[in-house]
Amino acid sequence: MTDYQHVTDDMTVYRDGTIKLHGPEGYEGMRKAGRLAAEILDEMATMVAPGVTTAQLDARVREMTLDGGAVPATLGYRGYTHSCCISINHVVCHGIPSDKRLKEGDIVNIDVTPLLDGWHGDTSRMFLVGDVALKARKLVEVTYECLMIGIAEARPGARLGDIGAAIQKHAERHRYGVVREFCGHGVGRLFHDAPEVVHAARAGTGPELRPGMFMTIEPMINLGRAPVKLLNDGWTAVTRDKSLSAQFEHSIGITEEGCEIFTKSPTGLDQPPYG
Ligand code: MF3
Ligand code: CO
Ligand code: CO
């Protein structure tokens, strides 16, 4: 049995394992945070190019976040000292910005989370650096499809496992590996809240989705096998077999009709090519 907790504007929220049910002020807050997050990624689309360092991208993320009246939720999060995560090629997630330069043919995930007026807009997209090989572009395309297929399952009455089941089915149809070590999560006033949104699951299992639930869906899909390993920096996750990995992430809220995507690009730049 699942516990739910209705959230009101004036209450302190705890991470107690219950799934929060948010009201109108939550949707308003997430729309604003999500919009800023999407605008930051739109800007990234204009900057990603061979020769650009990931530290330069991180600096722009920080600047746009602060200019938007927000703070990067990753800054100081469990000792992380950057404003976003930038994960290149076989890096699955949590790549640390550095002086490393992007190069022609790379596929890159940029994951941003502005914390605006108490709400977390958590989203990531893939970017293609110059000419990218067909099989890498296909991985990126199918990973975006996985995200949107998962989102299509998110509606009242569905079970949480329906999301992961749909994603897993689509990825495995293409013989890709679905990462198990990291998952989506409840989001809102807390960066990472209940429930865990796994991207490989059995349909019909898990808690029932209800209007007011906020969560991220963020499948990580590998061209090769699913297992990942953590590098010695304690953050960078890479594919064990060194195959390419792709990820897209949206923050969504369950509505009476289905769901609302808080982090959609206002200019339609949700997936590459960005023009
Ligand atoms: N944005 C990531 C997520 O989707 C979390 C990054 S935490 C960090 O949940 F510390 F690695 F930045
Ligand atoms: Co997330
Ligand atoms: Co994220």
Automatic annotation (TrEMBL):
A divalent metal cation 2 binds at D122, H185, E218, E249. It catalyses: Release of N-terminal amino acids, preferentially methionine, from peptides and arylamides. GO terms for biological process: proteolysis. Its EC number is 3.4.11.18. A divalent metal cation 1 binds at D111, D122, E249. Binds 2 divalent metal cations per subunit. Has a high-affinity and a low affinity metal-binding site. The true nature of the physiological cofactor is under debate. The enzyme is active with cobalt, zinc, manganese or divalent iron ions. Most likely, methionine aminopeptidases function as mononuclear Fe(2+)-metalloproteases under physiological conditions, and the catalytically relevant metal-binding site has been assigned to the histidine-containing high-affinity site. Its cofactor is Co(2+); Zn(2+); Mn(2+); Fe(2+). The keyword Transcription regulation does not apply. Substrate binds at H94, H192. GO terms for molecular function: initiator methionyl aminopeptidase activity; metal ion binding; metalloaminopeptidase activity. It is an enzyme of class 3 (hydrolase). Gene3D superfamilies: Creatinase/methionine aminopeptidase superfamily. Residues 28-256 form the Peptidase M24 domain. Belongs to the peptidase M24A family. Methionine aminopeptidase type 1 subfamily. Removes the N-terminal methionine from nascent proteins. The N-terminal methionine is often cleaved when the second residue in the primary sequence is small and uncharged (Met-Ala-, Cys, Gly, Pro, Ser, Thr, or Val). Requires deformylation of the N(alpha)-formylated initiator methionine before it can be hydrolyzed. NCBIfam families: met_pdase_I. This is Methionine aminopeptidase. The gene is map.
